[in-house]
From TrEMBL:
Top-level division of the source organism's lineage: Eukaryota
Biased segments, Basic and acidic residues type: 402-420
Species in which this protein is naturally found: Mycena venus
Region (Disordered): 386-420
Parts forming coiled coils: none
Listed Acidic residues bias regions: 386-395
Cited CDD domains: F-box_SF (cd09917)
Protein name: F-box domain-containing protein
Length: 420
């Protein structure tokens, strides 16, 4: 008789690896328990994208769910301790962390939230102390975070870090460029200063989402050229002149999105050699009138904001301006304030014979009355909670099925691109 061949070795490792990339988190965990081969293939995929959302545990906490929230916070702390050990730290490629805002834990009628505070501090301190161990970290997204000197030093010690996103941030130490390729900032904290920002190195940045803080970035960059920047997204731009000067420092820019361009100053003349490679433009009609002509823009987005489109006539006029692009328009997204008719859509599409995608968002009705009623609250007597015993060794025993379903979706685990 011929010796038996183990089933996992019947196919090449590359085939098994391709199958693993299509599995969910729950399926990957089950595969990792089959044999050593499957564990060696599933574990790197399972570990490389990590997410912690402590803030969601503190939202809408009630007397019915506080025990589940407490145990889930404990599991988060235990998972961080396990991940900080080799070889897991070298397998993690992406971290997305949402801290609890200012570390506050609130439960109606309960004054002492010490177990929550203790576990929350444990999560924050463990991640702060071990973040520098993730030497293969590619992407880092932090929410409710303070960028102080310690975090600055930690970020500088991550050699592969390319993608950094900060939301509800406060930057205490604004100096020091990091060799990032993607930097996304949104919603600063209430105590954030107005100092110049030096986070992403202007020589390496390819994507910059600067929100409403372009002037602070420009001050931090100085007169440095951004030779690699291809994607720029902004919120409200107050200093129009400074904005167009900055565009002159971005010779390879391909995508530009501006939510609001201030009406306080007249738009300057833009030379034809400024951002000559622009392919995607999103903004108000006046921005399309100014930048479309002579540039190879094939994707146009006209958002419907309070400063955007007002009438069908303006919509048609800006579409005529878009036709002056040096490249055929393939994608057009319109968000008008008024309801459009088929005749108008036919007239618009006739202007773009090579149009492949047309997106139209109709305005929402705002005639419904807004009712705001405030009710007085009776004083709540203090409540004494009976805290459960928290044992790290049994933290993952009897994990609730709802918790598993929430984290283990059915779509492929690595879907959405690297570092996301």
């Amino acid at each position: 008789m011929q010796p038996s061949v183990p089933p996992p070795t019947l196919l090449p490792v590359e085939i098994w690896l391709a199958c693993c990339t299509l599995c969910s988190r729950r399926q990957l965990r089950r595969l990792s328990l089959v044999c050593r081969l499957f564990r060696s293939l599933a574990l790197p995929i399972l570990v490389q994208y990590q997410t912690i959302d402590v803030a969601s545990l503190a939202i809408r906490m009630t007397m019915d769910n506080w025990r589940d929230r407490l145990r889930q916070l404990q599991r988060t702390a235990v998972r961080l301790d396990k991940l900080s050990q080799l070889p897991y730290t070298l397998l993690v490629r992406s971290w997305s962390v949402t801290f609890n805002q200012r570390g506050r834990w609130y439960l109606l009628g309960v004054e002492n939230m010490q177990p929550f505070d203790t576990l929350n501090e444990r999560v924050v301190s463990t991640l702060s102390a071990t973040l520098r161990l993730y030497q293969n970290l590619f992407s880092l997204q932090l929410t409710h975070v303070t960028v102080d000197g310690s975090l600055r030093e930690t970020l500088s010690l991550l050699p592969r870090l390319e993608d950094l996103g900060l939301c509800n941030w406060e930057i205490v130490v604004p100096d020091g460029f990091l060799p990032l390729k993607c930097l996304i900032l949104c919603a600063p904290g209430p105590t954030d200063t107005k100092e110049p920002l030096q986070i992403g190195c202007p020589g390496s940045l390819r994507t910059l989402h600067a929100g409403n803080y372009l002037s602070r970035f420009i001050t931090g960059f100085g007169a440095r050229i951004l030779p690699q920047l291809v994607d720029l997204s902004l919120g409200t731009v107050q200093d129009v002149g400074l904005f167009f000067q900055f565009l002159g420092l971005c010779p390879r820019l391909e995508s530009l999105a501006v939510r609001v361009l201030s009406n306080r100053a007249a738009l300057p003349e833009v030379h034809a050699t400024t951002i000559p490679h622009l392919r995607t433009l999103a903004g108000q009609p006046k921005l399309h009138h100014l930048l479309t002509s002579g540039r190879p823009i094939s994707t146009e987005v006209l958002p419907g904001t309070s400063f955007g489109l007002a009438t069908h006539e303006e919509l048609v006029n800006v579409c005529f301006a878009i036709t002056r692009s040096s490249a055929p328009v393939h994608s057009l997204k319109l968000v008008p304030k008024e309801a459009t008719n088929l005749e108008l859509l036919a007239a618009i599409t006739a202007l773009f014979p090579e149009l492949r995608k047309l997106s139209l968002t109709l305005p929402e009705a705002t005639d419904a009355p807004f009712l705001n009623v405030c009710y007085g609250r009776r004083p709540i007597p203090p409540v004494e909670l009976e805290w459960p015993d928290l044992d790290d060794d049994t933290a993952f025993d009897n994990t609730p099925a709802d918790d598993l379903r929430r984290r283990d979706r059915r779509e492929p685990y690595n879907r959405g691109g690297e570092g996301r």
